[in-house]
User: Fold these one by one.
Assistant:
Number 1:
Amino acid sequence: MPPDGQLPVLTTPVPVAGAIDPLRTVHNSVYSEEAFALETERLFRRAWYLLCHDSEVPASGSFLRRRLGGDPVLVLRGADGAVRGFHNVCRHRGCLVVPEERGCARALVCPYHHWSYSTTDGSLLGVPHEEAYDGSGFARGDFGLVPLRCESVHGFVFGCIDEQAPPVAEYLGPDVLQVMESPLSRLALEVFHVESTPFAANWKTFAENIRDGYHVPFVHPWLRRSSPPQPYTLLGNHHAVQQLRLAREAVTEEEWLTTTSHPLPGMEGGAGYVLTIFPDSLIIVRSGEVHTMTVTPLSAAASTLEIRVLGVAGEPPEVRRARQACYDLWSARQPPEDVEVLQYQQQGLASRSVQVSLVARGGDATAGRRGDDNRLRQFWAGWRAYMGVTANEVPPDPAVTR
Ligand code: FES
Ligand SMILES: [Fe+2]
């Protein structure tokens, strides 16, 4: 027994990974509650996030709920046709103004005391028994919905809480904008399928997974034969793009036809790319369909993955079915397979005995091939920049770095 007042040291963490450059390692502290609180302030509330596609709010009064930086927010199309963002919080007593996931309304009426707001500019339109505020200093004009920065890029709607952040075009940078030119800028796309998958892991396990080509042949073995590793390029502002190719000789006739029977205008059958937008989003363009993947952090150990599948607006039902079949064939199986290992990873990352993992594969050039870790290191460089830290870890007392 130790003397009174002294605690024994029970565990000794495994030391840092040998001779590996520390920036090619990740410390488990980045997945902690403390890190999550710091990320909420420094990253989630400062970066631009892909919220939805503007086809999801098609008409005047259409709204869509999302969560951004821990806050409930709304994307809304006004009577003037513009898409805007607002915080989904009633100015009376803080109830959600819109509890539904999506819908369309002439005015937004809070379910609690029925204050009503304009779907165009968020102004407060109606207050039941308003005369009771007489003499209190209350004025309707002071209590409209609080706006949220929202900007659309070829129909993809991004939101940002930080009023000081640069415009989204600057955040994405010229490289991403150039990639999005083709074919996304030429197509009138619309979302026709949305799925949402909760998973019990830190949001960064997903952000890393989408940059990790190493796991692909093991977790998605059916992709091993059909999708040979393709080159990727690191872009400015921590974004990246990877080419996609389907090996014609390695897929069945039926798979090939499913993929290529209705290529998106301007695309070659079997071709495509994956655009990785820092920190959490993917826009995946295949010749047969487009889909987006985003992750909403709920806590340090819980997240929700959202997928939106898009086709060309107004296309015939058989073409739409072909897009869904293409998505089902090449993409629908991946999220459950990834989520399974990410949840196992989360359990391992909770270890207090083994605290360091590796992102050391491959070189540091701006181009590489699926299977190395350079895109993960690029992610971590962006993460460090936002977090104001110099290593892939969260110091024990974050206040030290504030
Ligand atoms: S909380 Fe919305 S009307 Fe009272
Ligand atoms: Fe995967």
Note: Residues 90, 92-93, 95, 110, 112-115 surround FE2/S2 (inorganic) cluster (ligand 1) (CB under 6 Å).
Number 2:
Amino acid sequence: MSAAQRLPEFPVDGCAVVIGGSGGIGRAVAVQLAERGCCVAFSYFKGHARAEETASLVRTAGQEVHIGRVDLREEAEVLRFVDEAAEHFGGVHTTVYAAGPYIPMRFISQQSASAFREVMEHDAFGCFHLAQAALPHLRKSKGSFTALVTPAIRRYAVRDILSAAPKAAIEAVVKGLAAEEGRFGVRANAVGVGVITDGLYHALVENGDFDQRFLDASREVMALKRLGTAEEVAEAVAFLASSRARWITGQTLMVDGGYAL
Ligand SMILES: NC(=O)c1ccc[n+]([C@@H]2O[C@H](COP(=O)([O-])OP(=O)(O)OC[C@H]3O[C@@H](n4cnc5c(N)ncnc54)[C@H](OP(=O)(O)O)[C@@H]3O)[C@@H](O)[C@H]2O)c1
């Protein structure tokens, strides 16, 4: 296909929905999608001020923005937000799951069942709620669903069960969507986020879950010997969501500096 014949990366009509736009990676995704011409509807949970900052960055990128508070554990809230976004912008062509709770890092022997249950409710159920809410709109637009997961589902990192378990479930949902919804033109992919210096990183360092020893060991095991950034993750999300990836579905792209090799 010549440059002149190339499809636009995203449709002109409708919007991209980003769940977790108040977060480090969700913000970078919202801004990159806006820079590629998408109107953006994004959600926040407790971080209203951070959501306003993201909204301002999307507007600076020249796009219209719609924001709403969503608790992913509540199926009806997720449905309402996605339907509102579709109504506001005349459809949804892109859905990105970029949310997730804080995850205290402990050995399995030291984690409580209630912490495990809670993270599954926020993260695995949250992503499932989003997939179900977005599907009718994505079928109409032949759109895409992209979810953030972790390389720990391929190469387990000790003390990371609260990330690896829900993300393994999310990857299964993504593969299921790809297999079942491809006949409607819907694509679904995942991005495995390695250790980056944005988003959750700050709280993990502050709480001592990421100490210097952990960070040095992480760097050492990565082929590229450095931590990543939210922008580098967002590049991969934007690619997979765009028409450039129109024949890619059901894949998990590790954006992890070569951690999971
Ligand atoms: N950063 C990393 O190194 C890394 C590595 C691997 C995987 N990931 C995954 O990537 C995703 C984004 O991470 P991040 O670093 O950007 O984290 P972050 O900065 O802490 O952002 C998390 C986002 O999720 C939202 N959220 C949390 N619980 C929610 C709930 N119950 N309902 C609705 N929204 C909720 C937060 O909303 P509020 O802030 O408004 O409350 C925020 O927008 C997460 O799934 C995380 O597990 C991150």
Note: The beta strands are 15-19, 39-44, 65-69, 92-97, 144-149, 187-193, 252-255.
Number 3:
Amino acid sequence: MDLTIDVNIPQIESSSYPIFINDETIAKLKETLDEKTQGKKRLVIFSQKVYKLYGKILNFDKKEIFILKDGENQKTLKNFQKIIEKAISLQLSRKDVIIAIGGGVVGDMSGFVASSYMRGIEYIQVPTTLLACVDSSVGGKTAIDMPNGKNYVGAFYQPSAVYINTNFLKTLDEKQYKSGFGEVIKYAFIEKSCNCSENYNLLEYLQTNKENYEKREDEFLCKIIEICLNLKASVVSQDEKEAGLRKILNLGHTFGHAIEEITKYKRYTHGYGVVQGLMYIFNYALNNGFCDKKYYDKAFTLMNIYGYHPDKFCFINKKKVMQLMKTDKKSDSTTLTLIVPSQEKVVVEHKIDKTQELTFSVNYQN
Ligand SMILES: NC(=O)c1ccc[n+]([C@@H]2O[C@H](COP(=O)([O-])OP(=O)(O)OC[C@H]3O[C@@H](n4cnc5c(N)ncnc54)[C@H](O)[C@@H]3O)[C@@H](O)[C@H]2O)c1
């Protein structure tokens, strides 16, 4: 399996880049990275766990490595500064390169460092979680968190290339694997709205491939990554900076972010927050006449097949969740923007007045 997807952003010619997807050995990946960065100084940013697992085989020079501890709470201004200082100590110039090897945390942080170091330096993404492979490594959203909110400071800054190797996904623990799959399911519900020239029928493909998901079968992994990234590339090429269409990628995220925040990024991973956000928004869609019961049932059945069930929210302050939703970055002072499922695989943008009462409902309605 060896695929290439080109992300073309017409507004900025230099922001077009390839995504390589394959299952070759990790050692071969290192050779490719060495070739690609030949003659340049490098700063290689690893997530701690990935370094433990793959540091030896990737065998970068210790001097060029920065190891970022694991966890959402590492996407901080303090770590941003530490990495910038490392880049300065390596005397990186604008002609040099940063390589991010890890999940979305490392990717977001490295991308933001790259966007601001000397007003912009090349960076390469090597995503090692399913979530980073299907979503965060592509599209150029980079960010760090602030005490008042997640991804509060950041930039749109595209990588020069993305190298995806499905072998990394074999060592992901079950929780992280399932978290990434939450974003895959999201793509199944927005497929038609992505205006992609290809018809993938991701929803139907997922309905019949649970076994391959469980086995982490390479062909299955390459296929879902290929589909999600083609859909994302299609959206991002039409709207790089989220002025319009790109908002659809936020399906499930307004509720998901609130759930992540209220549980302090410990109980729920990002993808699991998103799946709960999908359950919430499908309930909203059904109750407010956006989608019919048949599609609602189909959506809940798919989430059930992959083992996502509405969790017990009894210990969660539901009122706080609803309040947090209203502080979402995509809203303004008076209105909240929700992305809502309507017809099969289609979503619509829906603005509601912030004074409007929102009800909390994630459970399946018979
Ligand atoms: N930029 C975007 O467009 C975008 C989109 C979605 C999410 N995000 C961001 O992505 C972050 C979440 O990313 P994530 O879910 O990848 O989590 P993560 O980066 O925290 O990684 C999860 C855990 O998996 C470990 N890990 C990574 N690769 C591994 C491997 N191959 N084997 C074993 N363990 C491995 C990591 O070390 C970490 O402990 C959030 O900060 C979110 O805001 C960004």
Note: The mean pLDDT is 93.
